[in-house]
Structure to design on (131 residues):
């Protein structure tokens, strides 16, 4: 697990997946780098950086990152599902409705159009009769 944490940016990156959020940072820590077996803690001010071979003191930040990541991924999945459902709904209706031309022709034959529109349509039908 590769971890990069920057307190000032409120950002934790775990294996390249970075999330900015509210984390419970250790006091005076500016950044933490961890390569899976060792790392370095950088402090604010003139304090010397400290090499580390045990990450357990900072595991709570990775756990918080995992919770935020799970929430983000669930939100994305929910949005994608809602989008897919709207596409399905629209597609299903589109495929089952009669063609628009057939709908308009039915309305014309039912006498639903205003007189001037019916006159225009009838003129076209007379000009180009069905074979």
């Amino acid at each position: 697990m590769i971890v990069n944490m920057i307190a000032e940016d409120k950002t934790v990156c775990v294996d390249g997946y970075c999330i900015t959020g509210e984390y419970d940072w250790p006091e005076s820590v500016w950044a933490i780098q961890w390569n899976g077996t060792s790392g370095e803690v950088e402090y604010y001010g003139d304090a010397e950086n400290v090499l580390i071979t045990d990450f357990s003191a900072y595991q709570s930040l990775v756990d918080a990152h995992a919770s935020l990541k799970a929430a983000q991924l669930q939100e994305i999945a929910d949005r994608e599902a809602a989008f897919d459902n709207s596409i399905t709904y629209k597609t299903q209706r589109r495929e089952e409705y009669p063609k628009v031309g057939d709908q308009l022709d039915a309305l014309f034959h039912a006498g639903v159009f205003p007189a001037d529109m019916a006159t225009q349509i009838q003129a076209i039908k007379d000009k180009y009769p069905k074979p």
